[in-house]
């Protein structure tokens, strides 16, 4: 069982690195990198988590607590990255134009994470780290054994931002639970087939209102409506477990866009690209100008 658990941890870390590598193929930090103050808030959250990981891993190595290294790296790769950050930014990576500032911002973070994460695992997974390093297109050292321990800028640490995003993490967990129930009941198929209505109390509303436009991206749904406090929740809504909130999931309006897979009433409006939504239609038109 111990060997099976270690194998599974190794596989998940390797798969995360494969995703990072696959999405940095057209990225050069010197040419395409985005400055920290121009990154989106979720990108800065990811860098904050990376900064914490470096500090925790360095301390574990100093104390020869190699099991702590594995736990920290595994939790970062799976919980922070694969289950949250990487899942959310797929739309920016795959749908937006190649040189879109938002896409390049995401790639800036991915490149930083890829390089740093590879350096963190080299003392314990040397051959895998060297293999990953050999495929990094923007590496400066020929071998990872010639690279120094990662030192990240102190401004990556942002406790105030991290505290705000704890609510976002909780919200995503609460909505995912309701989405899963809706899937079992055949209300929706994938999460992108869903339209979500949120009915928070006044305190939670104040924390979410600034992120209203970002909520569909966070929850990976086709639409999300944040209702003001006092709005009467629909009878089909469900009570959240940890947050003072009611959540309703219904089938999103419109047809499925064959490019971004979101459901939108605008699918079919573009006569040149009839199978895509208005957003994707504009992107395709600009790409062919």
Question: Could you please say which CATH topology of the largest domain applies here?
Answer: Isoleucyl-tRNA Synthetase, Domain 1
Structural class, by secondary structure, is alpha+beta
Largest pleated sheet? 4 strands, mixed
- What is the 3D form? globular
How many separate domains make up the residues? 3
Fraction of residues in helix? 40-55%
Strand content: 5-15%
Rg: 21 Å
Assign the CATH class of the largest domain. Mainly Alpha
List the strand order in the largest sheet. Answer: 2-1-4-3
The CATH architecture of the largest domain is: Orthogonal Bundle
The total beta strand count reads 6
Distance between the termini: 57 Å
Please give the count of helices. Answer: 10
- List low-pLDDT spans: none
Element-by-element helix/strand order:
HHHHHHHEHHEEEEEH
- Mean pLDDT comes to 95
């Amino acid at each position: 069982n111990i060997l099976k658990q270690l194998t599974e941890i190794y596989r998940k870390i390797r798969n995360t690195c494969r995703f990072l590598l696959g999405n940095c193929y057209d990225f050069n930090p010197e040419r395409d990198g985005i400055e920290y103050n121009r990154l989106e808030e979720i990108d800065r959250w990811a860098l904050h988590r990376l900064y914490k990981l470096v500090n925790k891993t360095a301390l574990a190595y100093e104390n020869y607590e190699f099991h702590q290294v594995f736990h920290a790296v595994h939790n970062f790769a799976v919980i922070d990255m694969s289950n949250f950050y990487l899942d959310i930014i797929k739309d920016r990576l795959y749908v937006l134009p190649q040189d879109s500032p938002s896409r390049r911002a995401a790639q800036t973070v991915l490149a930083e994470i890829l390089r740093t994460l590879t350096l963190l695992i080299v003392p314990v997974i040397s051959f895998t780290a060297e293999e990953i390093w050999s495929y990094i297109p923007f590496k400066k050292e020929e071998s990872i054994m010639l690279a120094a321990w990662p030192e990240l800028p102190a401004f990556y640490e942002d406790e105030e931002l991290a505290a705000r995003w704890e609510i976002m993490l909780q919200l995503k967990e609460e909505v995912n639970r309701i989405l899963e129930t809706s899937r079992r009941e055949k209300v929706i198929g994938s999460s992108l087939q869903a339209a979500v209505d949120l009915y928070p109390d006044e305190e939670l509303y104040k924390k979410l209102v600034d992120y209203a436009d970002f909520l569909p991206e966070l929850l990976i749904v086709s639409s999300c409506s944040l209702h003001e406090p006092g709005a009467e929740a629909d009878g089909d809504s469900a009570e959240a477990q940890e947050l003072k909130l009611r959540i309703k999931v219904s089938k999103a309006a419109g047809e499925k866009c064959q490019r971004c897979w979101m459901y939108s009433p605008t699918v079919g409006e573009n006569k040149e690209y009839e199978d895509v939504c208005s957003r994707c239609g504009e992107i395709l038109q600009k790409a062919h100008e």
